[in-house]
Design a protein that fits this description.
The protein is mostly helical. It has helices spanning about 20-30, 30-35, 40-50, 60-65, 80-100, 140-155, 175-185, 185-200, 210-225, 230-245, 250-270, 275-290, 290-305, 310-320, 325-330, 345-355, 360-370, 380-390, 395-410, 415-420, 425-440; strands at about 10, 110, 120-125. The chain has three domains: about 5-125, no CATH class; about 130-160 and about 340-445, Serine Threonine Protein Phosphatase 5, Tetratricopeptide repeat (Alpha Horseshoe); about 185-340, Serine Threonine Protein Phosphatase 5, Tetratricopeptide repeat (Alpha Horseshoe), CATH 1.25.40.
């Protein structure tokens, strides 16, 4: 093993999840060692993505020379010699990264001498970095332990399970045709599309800013791989808008929002019929407080892809911010068909929409049923459930939930987030703040 493994026991991973590999790839590419070397970023991205697509055995010097360095396959060994030199440089940079800033990363990427197919190991004692906020999760103690272990394994606690996307074989479906078309344009374009689509799985929970920032770096890398592909810009716009909502600094929030708008506009310029781009623009408009324009854009996004789960979730978030609970309820209702791999944020959007509409029994059923449905508990879900109980006069239940919030998430910035998500003075904002005050939640207040 390389220098990164000195003093640390490492175990091989025969079949790591694509999500965990891409999360680690984003950390490596965003490091200081790699951020100044676009070619090394592209080299590493290429061999990792080819391996995740099941083509690792076919990663050869000549294919790297052609697909990464643009060398003609018929130009002899010159291109392959270049690849060998660059591979040595890549191995050296990886060694430096894992000997230093990446030493504690839960997953390590290796490129062994004599080949180009990456190998993945996990440090046996590595600890997942905490999320922001990074709660254990729910009392009683047995549940706290179970959820905390799951959160560590996934790097951050999740409000919904991380979707897995199985690569579609060429020619299997319309998705396969799309992939063929992207591949015909260039391998980096196909890589960028794959990366952007997979990164959608990082977008929940919204309150986890560390996860959002990781997703942003991955979307930026997608843009770098294929500057003419709209998806990277749409994803970046969505994340930037979310970060603007949760920023405590007004100047930073304004800058994030402005960049979100620019990214959404770029996505729409590249692909005027891209539902994701319209949804991202809708979210940005909602952050700006332009509710009518936001809803108009959101409705257009739905009309373009009415069953796309990711688009529906994006519209649902926009509708909550724009004080349109009926729309949020429609796109998140449990019986609505939705396409895409894995779970979405629909359960949480549905619960909030029902709270806004005053349907408290539906709120309680939604959030109380989250564990049985495989959805972890979160600080916001405890708050929303407590509000519903309080409005129904079920004060013992409400107090128990707020006590649980204080015990497991004592520093959750509830009051600040209420002010960022719901309009000041609206019934929902008033009810949440009154519930927090009535039962003595003393979390931090905005500066």
């Amino acid at each position: 093993m390389g220098r990164a493994s000195e003093g640390r026991e490492e175990i091989g991973i025969s079949n790591p999840s694509a999500e965990s590999v891409r999360s680690e790839l984003a950390l490596v590419l965003g490091s200081e060692l790699f951020s100044t070397s676009p070619r090394m970023q592209q080299f590493l991205s290429y061999i990792v993505e080819e391996t995740l697509a099941g083509r690792g055995a076919r990663v050869k010097g000549k294919t790297i020379a052609a697909d990464v360095y643009g060398r003609d396959l018929d130009m002899g060994v010159g291109g392959q010699n270049l690849v060998r030199v660059e591979a040595r440089r890549l191995r050296r940079l990886l060694d430096e990264y894992y000997a230093g800033p990446g030493r504690a990363d839960p997953l390590h990427i290796h490129v062994d001498p004599g080949g180009y197919t990456p190998r993945f190991t996990r440090a046996a004692q590595a600890e997942a970095p905490p999320s922001l906020p990074s709660p254990p999760a729910r009392v009683p103690a047995t549940t706290i332990v179970a959820v905390a272990i799951g959160a560590a394994a996934l790097v951050v606690g999740m409000l919904l399970l991380w979707p897995r996307v199985t690569p579609v074989a060429e020619g299997d479906s319309s998705d396969g045709a799309v992939r063929q078309a992207l591949r015909a344009q260039s391998v980096p374009t196909l890589q960028a599309a794959d990366l952007a689509q997979e990164t959608r799985g990082l977008l929940f929970p919204l309150f986890d800013t560390r996860r959002q920032k990781l997703a942003l770096e991955m979307f930026r890398h997608s843009i770098q791989l294929a500057p003419t592909l709209a998806d990277g810009y749409a994803g970046a716009a969505q994340v930037l808008a979310v970060l603007a909502i949760f920023s405590f600094d007004a100047d930073e929030a304004a800058k994030l929002s402005a960049e979100a708008g620019a990214m959404a506009d770029k996505a729409l310029a590249l692909a005027p019929s891209n539902a994701w781009a319209h949804g991202a623009k809708a979210l940005h408009l909602a952050v700006l407080g332009d509710d009518d324009a936001a809803i108009e854009k959101a409705q257009l996004a739905i009309s373009l892809e009415p069953d796309n789960g990711y688009v529906l979730d994006l519209v649902g978030i926009t509708a909550i911010l724009a004080e349109a609970p009926d729309l949020a309820a429609d796109v998140s209702r449990p019986d609505r068909e939705r396409s895409g791999a894995g779970r979405f944020g629909a359960r949480n959007i549905w619960g909030v929409s029902q709270l806004m509409l005053g349907r408290d029994r539906a709120v309680i059923a939604t959030f109380k049923g989250a564990p049985a449905a495989g959805a972890p508990i979160s600080a916001p879900s405890l708050i929303f459930e407590a509000v519903a109980h309080d409005r129904l006069g079920e004060y013992t239940e409400a107090r128990s939930l707020i006590d649980e919030l204080g015990a497991t998430w004592p520093n959750f910035p509830a009051r600040f987030l209420v002010g960022r998500i719901f309009r000041e003075g609206t019934p929902i904002a008033r009810d949440i703040l009154q519930t927090l005050d009535r039962y003595g939640y003393a979390g931090p207040k905005a500066n």
